[in-house]
Design brief:
This protein has six helices and nine strands, in the order H-E-E-H-E-E-H-E-E-E-E-H-E-H-H. Helices cover about 30% and strands about 15% of the residues. The protein has a four-stranded antiparallel β-sheet.
């Protein structure tokens, strides 16, 4: 949304008003609990051009080819399906079919792919939304899957933190699950306030 020119506040209002979760449907083929491709039309309402080339800020999307085991990067052509493919948490969503290949969340192999842009920018700002921690017990199968995925990608992600000039990782986010869309405004506020506290540090780093 931001790469397409929406302000962060506008993007938040879209999330709050679009009822994203209501657009998901059960995945009857049992490769996941839900289908995410049913949300394509929702995204097209807000990004009608559906192309990387139509964005105002260059964007690189990573997703994992489930059959080949490769981390593939999408940065041209069709936009929305690769974006949704990069959100396909294994076990939660069935894989997204792109070019006759099955794709899942890029975080399976690389949850902070700094390598894609580190030679294209002056400074790297990492935004990590799944800090390690647990504040409440897990009580569902979905919770077990989500927690297992976070644990699986955590160690590889830490190695890439060191490459970031700035790392934004609000510790309060440990109180929220990956699917807590209904708490979008609270999560937005936490991220905003945490980053404001880092403003002086960020200014110093980016001014060098």
């Amino acid at each position: 949304m931001v790469a397409n020119g929406y302000t962060p506040e506008e993007a938040l209002k879209i999330v709050e008003s679009s009822s994203f979760m209501k657009h998901l449907r059960p995945a009857w083929n049992r490769m996941g609990l839900l289908r995410i491709d049913t949300a394509i039309d929702l995204y097209r309402k807000f990004i009608p051009h559906d192309s990387f080339e139509g964005l105002k800020i260059p964007l690189h999307i990573g997703a994992v080819d489930l059959n080949e085991g490769d981390f593939d990067v999408f940065e041209s052509g069709e936009l929305i399906r690769p974006v949704l493919a990069s959100c396909c948490l294994p076990g939660i969503f069935e894989p997204m079919l792109l070019n006759k290949r099955q794709y899942v969340d890029g975080g399976v192999l690389n949850n902070l792919p700094v390598e894609l842009i580190e030679n294209k920018v002056d400074a790297l700002i990492g935004s990590h939304c799944n800090p390690f921690g647990l504040t409440k017990p897990i009580t569902s199968m979905k919770g077990v899957i989500e927690r297992s995925l976070i644990l699986a990608v955590q160690s590889k992600t830490k190695e890439r933190f060191a490459k970031c000039n700035v790392l934004i990782e609000p510790p309060e986010l440990t109180s929220y699950a990956l699917s807590d869309v209904k708490h979008a405004r609270e999560i937005f506020r936490i991220g905003y306030q945490h980053t404001k506290l880092m403003a002086k540090q960020i200014d110093q780093i980016l001014s060098h």
